[in-house]
Each structure stands twice: as C-alpha cells, then as structure tokens.
Amino acid sequence: MAKTMQVSLVAADREVWSGEATVVNCRTLAGEIGIMADHTPVMSVLAAGQVDVRTVDDGHWVAAVDGGFVSVAGNHVRLLCEFAELSHESDFEEAKRLMEERKAALEGQD
Predict the structure, then answer these.
(1) Contact yes or no for 8/15 (Cβ under 8 A)
(2) CB atoms within 10 A of CB 71
C-alpha cells in the first residue's frame, strides 16, 4: 500500500476538501510540482489553474484554483487560495455568467 499524507484545500470562504491522499499535483509560479508522502518541506506561490489529487481509496478529484499558496511540511499538504471549486461541483453556465459580470465590472472601472 502506498504511503499517505494529509491534504487540505482551503478557500477564503470554506474548507473545500480535507483527507488522506497518495499524490498531489499542482502548478506553482516556478512550475509543476508533484507531491507524495514524506516530501521535502516546501512553501511556494500557487499559480492559477488545476490541482489534481489521488486519494487513498484510488479516488481522484480535480479542483480549479485562482492561485494562492502551497505548503508541504510534516506529511501535510496545505493548499490555500481565495477561490477553489471541485470539478464535480462546478456549474459551467454559472461560472460563465460570473466571468462576464466581473469582466464588465473591470471594464467599468476604466
């Protein structure tokens, strides 16, 4: 059985997911990082994009994040961001509507 680590994905408004995993893949400003149990301690700026996690029961989930921070220490991976959404929770039409609203708001600030 693969070694495991504790993983927490936390957005500004909620804890998105917490549990045990075997692998976490994410993108930092320095590039892609793959994290497994007993990884060397790391702290880095998380780039906007995708976080990919393999859970202990051979499960898999993907989340979209807007950037933030990733911290690895003591066999615990913490992903902290302002916004995160699990792929199976997302609503494409709602996301599209929100993007258009935010785009219009930004254009209105000029």
Answers:
(1) yes
(2) 16
pTM: 0.79
- Residue spans of alpha helices (H) in the chain: 92-108
Question: 61 - beta bridge partners?
Answer: 53
Tokens 């994410």 belong to which residue?
26
Residue written as tokens 């916004």?
A: 83
Cβ distance 67 to 46 under 8 Å? yes
How would you write the pLDDT of the chain (110 residues) with one tens digit per residue? 689 999 999 999 999 999 999 999 999 999 999 999 999 999 999 999 999 999 998 899 999 999 999 999 999 999 999 989 887 776 667 666 776 787 788 888 76
9: how many CB neighbours lie within 10 A of its CB? 26
For 28-58, letters b (16+ CB in 10 Å) and e give beeeebebeeeeeeeebebbeeebbbbbeee
Nearest to 79 by CA among 31, 26, 30, 29: 26
